[in-house]
Design brief:
alpha/beta; 39% helix; Rossmann fold; four-stranded antiparallel β-sheet; six-stranded mixed β-sheet
Amino acid sequence: MTMAQKLFSEDNILLETRKVNKFFGSGKKRVHAVRDVDFKIHRAEIISIVGESGSGKTTLAKILLGLLKASSGDVLYNGALRSLKGQKARRAYWQNIQAIFQDPFSTFNQFFRVEKILNDCLDLQGLGRIPIGDKREKMRDACQFVNLKYEELYNKYPFELSGGQMQRLMIARIFMMQPNVLIADEPTSMIDACSRSTILDMLLKLRAEKDMTILFITHDLGLAYYVSDTLFIMENGEMVESGNATEIILNPNHRYTKQLVSDVPKLNEEWDVDAI
């Protein structure tokens, strides 16, 4: 059962792409990883880009984050062409758009203690000079939001934490920074089912409390259906279908979407093990 899905007006678009392409390599080895992608994300909307490995969804996410440069096309933020020229422009953009990645072990600098990781969030917001007591209060609040105890973690290194604790720490960083857009690339793929549900609830709470726009990058159609207002289906770098999450799942039109839906195991049907 999916969450109640919202309706969004066209005058409330926060992030948009226009004919975005990305090529890797050259000549016969050139790969067209993202193909003429047009899509819009509204303020406080939850969308999911769904596709199998190699579909181009993570490449697109990195373009949106400004970690990769598009070969052609435009990215617009808040109605204006995005600018990443110069450190000041990139810093301003990253104050508004942040990410959670699937591998928490590669997200953090393993030589930085938790206190520095959280303190860097304050620096990025321009709060590096506030009193130390205020800093620690903000860090405690962020840890409490994700059910962690600051006093037990602040002096530890990331490698001393469990995978679940690091996932929660990533969300604590987002809570501190409160970006307008959160891009979550397979944020629950490396944790157990129980922790997965908890992490998702925390992310959805950010939308509910902060009006945060969340973009999930995932191959898990069931997860996407549960959390999303809107689904985008991506195959070979191309958006092949999009629309209301319920409509896409119950009435898929594109043959690739139909394949993804049919591949989801259903508990009330006998599984065809031989076909698998």
